[in-house]
Amino acid sequence: MKTIIITLIIIANFILQSTVLQSIKILNVIPNISLILVVAFAINTDKNKSALIGFVIGILQDIIFGKFIGLNALIYMVAAYMISNINKNVFKENLAIPFIFTVITTIFYYAIGFLFIYFLGYKIEFLNLFKRMFVIELIYNSLLSFFVYIYISKIFKPRKNRY
After folding, report:
1. Number of domains the chain contains
2. Is there a domain that residue 97 lies in?
3. Quick one: 133 exposed, middle or buried, by C-beta within 10 A (0-12, 13-18, 19+)?
């Protein structure tokens, strides 16, 4: 049942990401809900399942929005795996955890993306891109991570018997 719910959430994410979220841009930057979902699922699942979810979300994002097939899949899979490994030692109910992991994952996402683009020989103005996109998306993602995490954690919270 959880697999079906996770699949529906991923599909809903891509529908929202390609339609509704395009209209709520702040300074021409949209939040990366896919990244936030990867963090939320990684905190709530084991390392293998979270790596698979990260890969699926990433490859779908590459196919639908990306210029390079596999880059987002690799970044999300590695991030999910690392978060799940660290996750064993953190208190999941603390709302600072998804915030911190989202900040770290957004930095990781941009760092790997910049390195990849640099090694391909593309010219990018790092400081301009940093000011225009990175900081805004970092704040945007971090603030939205609270709401997404609360929703996702309800799915994985064990149900209490009423009797």
Report:
1. 1
2. yes
3. middle
Q: Which domain holds residue 146?
A: 2-156
pLDDT tens readout for residues 11-55: 999 999 888 888 888 888 888 999 999 999 999 999 999 999 999
**pLDDT (average), residues 138-160:** 87
In a domain, 93, yes or no: yes
Q: What is the pTM of this model?
A: 0.89
Task: State the Cα–Cα distance between residues 35 and 31, nearest whole angstrom.
Answer: 9
pLDDT of residue 161: 64
Could you tell me which of 35, 43, 14 has the C-alpha nearest to residue 154?
43
161 in a domain, yes or no? no
